[in-house]
Structure formats: C-alpha cells, structure tokens
Amino acid sequence: MPAAGIPSGLPAVLAGLGFLLLLAAGFAAAFHLAARRRGATPWPLVLAQFAAASPWRPLDVWAVALVLAAAQLLRQFGPPSLLLDVLAFQGALLAAIAWRMRGKPQALGALAAPRTVLAEAALRWLAILPLLWFLGFAWSLALDGLGREPSFQRAVQLFLDADAPGERLRFVFFATVVAPIAEEALFRGLLLPLLVRHAGPAAGLALVTAGFAALHGLESLPALAVFSVALSLAYARTGTLLVPMAMHAIFNATNLALVAALVRSGALPT
Predict the structure, then answer these.
(1) ∠173-179-183 over CA atoms, to 5°?
(2) Average of pLDDT values for 64-73?
(3) pTM, two decimal places
C-alpha cells in the first residue's frame, strides 16, 4: 500500500522521468564521443595493436577453463545457494585468472585514477544507452510476435524474487561489483586479446561478443551484443580494464534500479 498522501503512480512517474533524463544525456554523450573520435585510429588497428601487446597465451585459457570446470563439478554436490553459485563461477574465475597473471605485467591493462575511470565509463555507457534501450524494446516486440512470453534475465528475476532486504543487498553487490569484475576479466581481459591476435580484429571481436551475449540468455541478446562491442572497444582504446568494469557495473545497477521502480509502480509484472 502506498503511504498516505503519496500518489500510487509516483514511482512510475519518477521512473519515466529518469528514463527521459538518461535518454537525453545519452544522445548528448554520443554526440560528444563522436566529435572526440574524429581523426582517431580506426578500431581494427586499435584492436590489433592492443592484442599484440597482451601477455596472455592459449595455455592460460585452458588453465582457467580447467579450474572453472572443476569448480562447477564440485558445485553439483552442494545445496542450492546464490553464494555458492557465485563462488563456483565468479570466485573460481577470478582465482584462476589471478593465478595465471603471475609474471605478466599489466595483463589486465594499466591502472588509472578513479575519477578518470568513472568519467570515461559514464560517458561511454551513456553514449550507447539509447541504442541499447531501442534494441531491447525492438527485441521484446520480436519475441512477443513469435509467441514467446516476455521475461526478465535470470539475474533480474532472482533480484525481484528475493524476499529479505539483506538478500537483495547481497544480490546487488554480486551484480554490481563481483559480476562486472569477473566477466570483464574473462571476456575483455583474457579472451579478447587472444582471439583478436589469432582470428583477426573483426572475428575476434565477434567471438567475444557471441560468448558474452550467450552467457546472459536470449531475453536481451541484441542489446547485450552491442554492449559487449562497446565494452571491448572501451578497453582497447583506453588501455585499462577498469573502464569496461565500471561501465558494466553502472549498466547493471541502472537496470536493477529501473526494473525495481517499474515493478513497484505496477508498470511491469513480476
């Protein structure tokens, strides 16, 4: 029940206002980024140079894959638990990459000042946001036309299904901190430079994009594919994995906040 004196439609109004403000900021950021890119090095050359400097080797991928496979196998013997799921995937992944990083300076790119990272990440996230929302809406209509009932990504549904506030806070931490760090370390940090080096810029970028989109399911496939390309180019152009990590975190946090507001207002079903 809404509090006395507060219109029941207020959350929907606030969510709509936030959507419009973000959309306007997104177009402004896109124009700014396009103007900044004039005369910049073409993206295939940027990816090729970035991949050539990476210290990762195919053996590192096999080692990380074996650790992940072992962790997932052991996970089958444990009880249902979000924490155990996170440890068996993101935890094992980060541990394996940290192990293989030994003796590889700047294996995940250079460090950068937090203010610089956040400013660059926010700009690049905003610039791609209108396209992501358009693709998400168009894809939802396409799935509906094919007779597939609309649904949330599994991660979003788990967040909405959480009952206790503490459980939701833990999930928000996993979604906005742990998942962006682990997934960017895997797809951009490890796989992107290797695949670009061995398959070429276009094919390497496409393979990473396909893997990233497939990991997150069919519900937002085109939008997540485009977002993956933006994350990959952000890493290659800035030289620090902190930028795509921050973009990923902002993306997840904003999606959770908007979905929660729309569900609370009744504009979206759970």
Answers:
(1) 165
(2) 95
(3) 0.89
181/174 Cα distance (integer angstroms): 10
What ranges in 200-241 are assigned the alpha helix state H?
201-215, 221-238
**For residues 194-223, b (16+ Cβ closer than 10 Å) or e, as one string?**
bbbbeeebeebbbbbbeebbeebeebbbbb
Partners of 240 in beta bridges: 109
- Closest CA relative to residue 268, chosen from 162, 110, 157, 170: 157
Radius of gyration of the chain (CA): 20
Instruction: Please compute the mean of the pLDDT values over residues 211-222 and round it to a whole number.
Output: 87
Q: How far apart (Å, rounded) are the C-alpha atoms in residues 116 and 133?
A: 26
75-97 pLDDT, tens per residue?
899 888 778 888 999 999 999 99
Q: At what angle do helices 221-238 and 192-199 cross, to 10 degrees?
A: 90
Would the pLDDT of 2 be above 60?
no
Asked if 52 and 197 touch (Cβ cutoff 8 Å), the reply is: yes
Residues 6+ apart with CB under 8 A from 240: 109, 110, 111, 112, 117
Average pLDDT of the chain, as a whole number: 87
- Residue 22 burial (10 A CB sphere; 0-12, 13-18, 19+): middle
Query: What's the farthest any 2 CA atoms get from each other in the chain?
Result: 63
User: Cβ neighbours of residue 182 under 8 Å, at least 6 residues apart?
Assistant: 89, 90, 91, 93, 94
Give the DSSP letter of residue 117: H
Residue 33 pLDDT level (bands cut at 50, 70, 90): very high
Cα–Cα distance measured from residue 229 to residue 240, given in angstroms and rounded to the nearest whole number = 16
Q: Are 123 and 33 in contact (CB under 8 A)?
A: yes
